[in-house]
Specification:
By secondary structure, the chain is mainly α. Helices cover 77% and strands 7% of the residues. It has a three-stranded antiparallel beta sheet. α2 packs antiparallel against α3.
């Protein structure tokens, strides 16, 4: 390795990604500028000389041989930059996709719980219970007289009254069993 390549390697390894991109693009433009300058030299020679010298092909071959590697290296660097920028863009898109997937999963779980809670609330709101003569009735046939007044309770109020009535019936059964023993 020559000293320039060692210096370049040490210098590149200490740079940030943005500095590497800037330096590579700067070098590419300098090399492309040299290529354009060489092409301009050939055109100037053609424009200002009335007659083309016999060895003009040799001069063109020499300039082409000198400028071709310079333009080739610049084109390679620009192509590398294009691929590198595409990779960075793909990484950003991948990161956004992963964030979006996580967000959609959270939304799915939230909507699932929300729908379950709404079903429970709907069941509570649709709970219906009737009382007549201090008795819990579930069918109109249980009434002695169909025209008797009954009290209907819906939703959480119906559930509360059902639980109170259920606990009182359970308590009365328990006391009856204790009296029998």
């Amino acid at each position: 390795m020559n000293p320039f390549s060692i210096y370049l390697y040490v210098n590149i390894s200490n740079m940030t990604t943005d500095q590497k991109i800037y330096n590579t693009s700067y070098l590419s433009f300098v090399l492309l500028g040299l290529g354009v300058f060489g092409f301009a030299l050939i055109l100037i020679q053609l424009l200002f000389f009335q007659s083309i010298p016999d060895n003009f092909g040799v001069v063109g071959d020499a300039l082409g041989g000198i400028l071709n590697p310079i333009v080739g290296i610049a084109a390679t660097l620009v192509t590398f930059l294009a691929f590198y920028m595409q990779k960075k863009a793909n990484d950003i898109i991948q990161e956004q996709f992963n964030k979006n997937m996580a967000s959609e999963h959270i939304d799915f779980v939230f909507n699932n719980y929300k729908s379950r809670l709404l079903m429970i609330i709907n069941e509570i709101n649709n709970f219906n219970i009737s009382f007549h003569g201090n008795k819990l009735i579930s069918k109109i046939e249980y009434l002695d007289d169909k025209n008797d007044k009954k009290y209907n309770f819906i939703g959480i109020q119906g559930i509360n009254l059902f639980l109170v009535e259920f606990l009182e019936i359970k308590k009365s059964k328990k006391t009856k069993e204790q009296k029998l023993i």
